Predict the 3D structure of the following.
Amino acid sequence: MAAKKTLLIVDDHTLFREGLKTIISRNPAYEVVGETGRGETAIQMAKSLRPDLIL
């Protein structure tokens, strides 16, 4: 079994982020490791979390 792909979700609309997280979390191939609505925070999170994908 392949390792899960990790994702960081970045969007300034909370409802959109939450909806996207809910949809992605239903797929066992992906793991949401973080979410934020701010670009500066996203850069810091990307450096520390090292996700496979950033949306």
